[in-house]
Write a structure and sequence with these properties.
The chain is α/β, with parallel strands linked by helices and about 425 residues long. It is built from 14 helices and 17 strands. Bound molecules: NADP nicotinamide-adenine-dinucleotide phosphate and L-homoserine. The site of NADP nicotinamide-adenine-dinucleotide phosphate has 25 residues, from helix 1.
């Protein structure tokens, strides 16, 4: 067995994820020591309310996270969440040369530049595999395994709560409100589901993915974000009628403009995808992410994107990496933001659309609608009409068009006297444009 002195670990937070981190560190202690070359010793656990934590040794608990970070620890593991006090605590740790492992996507999506700067200043490590897609090894492949390739696109389902809701709406035909209520009752959605259903959680994850994939600093504010609250049972039924389903997707793309200038487009929004697409089969709270790279081609990463044990698996994996670096005087990857590509505004980002209209069923209606598309240079790929007594349902799928052109088209169509209602407008992904 190795004789190196223990690596002392400060754990900040002991909730859903932290409790499982403690369990793994305890249950796997001997194996982790053998894998890293030194014992991993929990030096303390910072929480808000020590009395409620009967599952961990009482003598390790403290409410003074700052003092714990400043004590003689080698590594700080942060599973508190949110911006403060996590940001200040982690900056303090990194500036003092203590490596950091965090699962905090909100913090990384806003403050990774200053965290990496602090890590570089002292030579400490910053690892954050659990911040995106829970247990799924995804960030290390982007940061390390694919560092020799040129990634062109990352697209996936990175929020389990919204995937559970959309999968439920698709299988039952129920409304968004009914399905959200069910998700809350079953514990899949939090009491305040805003961060998930409004797309904030997925946008933070998209920012992290885009930064790593394109060697460019992308923050949550750079991500175009739409949540799922406006997805109706009618949208889901329309998708089903066309052999599609609706998913909340995080999409990060490298785009080359007509002038040859490269930029990145990063967006989170609901989209229709073909039922034959591999992401369509990702149901309940699972996550899956497609990565496309020039030399490697297409890859898909799939697994549990949330939950205490799956997330703790990624956290402890990072802790082992940090410990190995400490034992062997190595260092993990630093920030790679050399490409500094501009972020393309959503208005200029081309995507395909599905538009469903209630129209009067009489001669000339289709030509009036088609004329508006032509006027805005939005090319129609397919049209389907289903007539009723004196009105009809018209479904139009476009070729790739910019968001700005599509918005203007839909605004004008909504004002045509022959159009009774614009029932649904949704992007279409996963098909040839
Ligand atoms: P959680 O269950 O709410 O636990 C948060 C913990 O932090 C609690 O133990 C809480 O103490 C402690 N805490 C809060 N404020 C504190 C403060 N000021 N000082 C010291 N301790 C404080 O959260 P979680 O679900 O484990 O998530 C933790 C992190 O992992 C977040 O960044 C989250 O985004 C990320 N993550 C979570 C999941 C998941 O499935 N849950 C998946 C991927 C990533 P008390 O217990 O005493 O209140
Ligand atoms: N709220 C997140 C989800 C947890 O639903 O996927 C994992 O980050």
């Amino acid at each position: 067995m190795p004789s190196r002195k223990p690596i002392r670990v400060a754990l900040l937070g002991c909730g859903t994820v932290g409790t499982e981190v403690v369990r793994l560190l305890t249950d796997q202690a001997a194996d982790l020591t053998a894998r890293t070359g030194a014992p991993l010793e929990l030096a303390g656990i910072a929480v808000r309310k020590p009395n409620k934590h009967r599952e961990v040794p009482a003598d390790l608990l403290t409410t003074d996270a700052e003092a714990l970070v400043a004590s003689d620890v080698d590594v700080v593991v942060e599973v508190i969440g949110g911006i403060e006090p996590s940001r200040t605590l982690l900056l303090g740790a990194l500036r003092a040369g203590k490596s950091v492992v965090t699962a905090n996507k909100a913090l990384l999506a806003e403050h990774s530049a200053e965290l990496f700067e602090a890590a570089d200043g002292s030579g400490a490590d910053l690892y954050f595999e659990a911040a995106v897609a829970g247990a799924i090894p995804l960030l290390r492949p982007l940061r390390e395994s694919l560092a020799g390739d040129r990634i062109t696109r990352v697209m996936g389902i990175v929020n389990g709560t919204t995937n559970f809701i959309l999968s439920g709406m698709d299988s039952t035909g129920a409304s968004y409100a009914e399905t959200l209520e069910e998700a809350t009752r079953l514990g899949y959605a939090e009491a305040d589901p805003t961060a998930d259903v409004d797309g904030f959680d997925a946008a933070s994850k998209a920012a992290i993915l885009a930064s790593l994939a394109f060697h460019t600093r992308v923050t949550a504010a750079d991500v175009h974000r739409e949540g799922i609250a406006a997805v109706s049972a009618a949208d889901i039924a329309a998708a089903r009628g066309l052999g599609r389903t609706v998913k909340l997707l995080a999409i990060c793309e490298r785009v080359t403009g007509d002038d040859g200038q490269e930029s990145v487009a990063v967006r989170v929004h609901p989209a229709m995808i073909p039922r034959s697409h591999p992401l369509a089969g990702v149901s309940a709270a699972f996550n899956a992410v497609f990565v496309e790279a020039d030399a490697a081609g297409e890859m898909m990463f799939y697994g549990q994107g949330a939950g205490g044990a799956p997330t703790a698996s990624a956290v402890v994996g990072d802790l082992v990496a940090v410990a190995r670096n400490l034992v062997h005087s190595g260092r993990g990857p630093r920030e790679s933001a050399y490409a500094a590509l501009p972020v393309r505004p959503m208005g200029q980002t081309p995507t395909r659309y599905h538009i469903s209209l209630d129209v009067a069923d009489r001669a000339g209606v289709l030509s009036q609608v088609a004329a508006v598309f032509a006027e805005h240079d939005v090319s129609i790929a397919a049209v389907r009409q289903e007539g009723r007594v004196d009105d009809a349902s018209l479904v139009i799928v476009t070729h790739a068009a910019t968001d700005a052109a599509l918005r203007s088209t839909v605004d004008k169509i909504g004002g045509l006297p022959v159009v009774r209602e614009v029932v649904s407008v949704m992007r279409v992904e996963g098909e040839e444009s």
